[in-house]
Design a protein that fits this description.
8 strands, 2 domains, transferase, two-stranded antiparallel ribbon, 27% helix, alpha+beta, six-stranded antiparallel β-sheet, Histidine kinase
Length: 165
């Protein structure tokens, strides 16, 4: 009888742990944030991007958890820096405006264009803005070459900035 009790207690403990980890990863660490707008990197420096109806979430637990959606009717400034290999990261399912698969498909089909919003917003992380042809905008943080190299424990070399921990 005591063996069944121990196994049952372990199963309940495992279930509680699994539910807790799920809740912490999907809900707990995210906060709704209210950015006042976004900028785009250009050859002349950062330029403001007109953004309306901004919805955004962020988490202090990781620099790549930022996601935002917005509407814009502005054209991108001359000299804006395109972002090569933009790969939108998925957002929690409850943040309905950001569909990473749809944004990625729009980028591949040429229905959206990705631009550098801010280089090294955190060490090894860039802020990327994608704007669709119909004026819908999406923002996410993505590891750059320095972040990916450092993440795998390899020496980053002289091309990367000094890490400020």
């Amino acid at each position: 009888m005591s063996g069944k009790f121990i196994v049952g207690a372990l199963a309940v403990l495992a279930l509680i742990t699994a539910v807790s980890v799920y809740y912490l990863q999907v809900y707990h660490f995210y906060d709704t944030v209210s950015p006042e707008g976004f900028t785009i990197e250009t050859a002349a420096g950062p330029m403001a991007l007109v953004a309306e109806n901004i919805e955004a979430i962020d988490a202090d637990s990781s620099p790549i958890r930022f996601r935002a959606c917005f509407d814009t009717d502005a054209t991108l400034p001359d000299g804006a820096v395109p972002y090569e290999d933009a790969i939108p990261l998925t957002a929690p399912f409850w943040f309905g405006c950001f569909d990473a698969e749809a944004v990625g498909a729009a980028l591949e089909a040429g229905e959206a264009t990705a631009w550098l919003a801010q280089k090294n917003i955190a060490y090894g992380v860039d802020r990327v803005v994608a704007v669709t042809n119909d004026g819908r905008g999406y923002v996410w943080h993505q590891l750059n070459n320095c972040g990916e190299t450092d993440n795998f424990g390899n020496p980053v070399g002289d091309a990367c900035p000094e890490r400020q921990d």
